[in-house]
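not sure who needs this but someone in the group chat was asking about Response regulator from Poseidonibacter ostreae so here u go. i didnt clean anything up, its just raw.
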Amino acid sequence: MPIDKKLLKRLRILYVEDDAVIRTELSQLLSNFFEKVYTAEDGKEGLEIYLHNQDNIDIILSDINMPKLSGIDMVKAIRGVDPKVLIIFATAHSDNEFLAEAIKLKIHEYIIKPIDIRQLLSLMNDIAAVLYQDFLIEQKNKELSKYKEVTDLNNIVIETNIHMKITKVNDLCCKISGYTKEELIGQDFKFLKHPESSNDLYIKMYADVLNNKSWHGTLKNSTKEKGTFTTDCSMITILNDAGEIEDAISIQKDITEELAKKREMQRALMKDKSEIFIRSKEGNAEQHTIINDLKMKLEDANEEYFKAQRDTDKYIYIAEKYSLENRNLKSELASYRRNADKHSTSLKLIKENSDLRLDIKRLKIKIEDMKTKFEKEKKQIEVNSQIELDELNEKFVKLTQKYESIETDDVLVQKLEYWKEKANNESNRVETLEKQIMTYATKETMNKIFG
């Protein structure tokens, strides 16, 4: 593996060597590669430096044969304080007698003196890579622990064995169901099943778990007090080192209140739509009634107008008839005047003609009066009709505006649906993140999360 200087710069080491020349030269060289290099001239000083800087030392590189306190005795003392710190012994061939005891002290590695700097750096690089991976795992475990805390606070967590018997439950499960942990542990997973829930649902769930498949669905559950709560349930399996199913974990989100709000919103929307439809229907009915009344009034006005027109034509016809008779009488009068022997008859005809003239004159006056009267009535009908048309148009405009306002209510409903869908998408995104953590987590990680 090539040496990664960035990884080496993360390390802080304690170098213990009684040879001053070797200690000085090697420590100066190592300072170019490591973040911090502590040095000690014997085991006693090395132990003191470690105890004062325990949290700042990742690796100990030490000689074995040293005055005051040997490397073996120093490590024994350190192991009493920290059993995990990595220790490398630099030893000569003559130190083989100490190697067996060093192994008992869980020494990570040993190298032969004189130290090959390339071999040492390669060994340190491997250790740095392992420590960095441990660091990343620790960070991930911290994050997963936070996710576990959030999950435990907001979700029901139930762990079962391969036979779907409950082995662990969290506090939220007990709080919502009303049962204690002692009452739930050992029960079958469907112990909380609501009587209305189908057994086929649980059969499908159990089959998926036995086939190492994840399961997701909605469960209707019963509380200890015969109440009801609904959950959005996801179940995954946990495998052992052999890849066999060992346990299953169910994470359920209580959606009882959410479903109630959703049903309430749906009822409210249905009510609003019904009211809008009724108002629209009533508005259309009122509009049709007004239009029909207008049509009837217009038809009556047209009928009266045509009747007046017919009466006018009738009187004109009568006037023309009397005018024709008058002309005929004039012709007869002229004929009578030519006949002197019929003078008396002529006088009589003259008198009758005079009477006819008076009748014609009266008829003409009457016809003119009737024309004037019908003209006035016609104009009055036209004015009244125009006024009624204007009023109906004004009402029609108001009804149109009212109808458009009803359509605006529909737009508001659509906007409400849009924001509701967006809120649901955000909720689904958070749930997807939780599912991904459960899907890709290893058994070791899941055990660390859920104890």
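also The first strand starts at residue 12 and ends at 16. if thats useful
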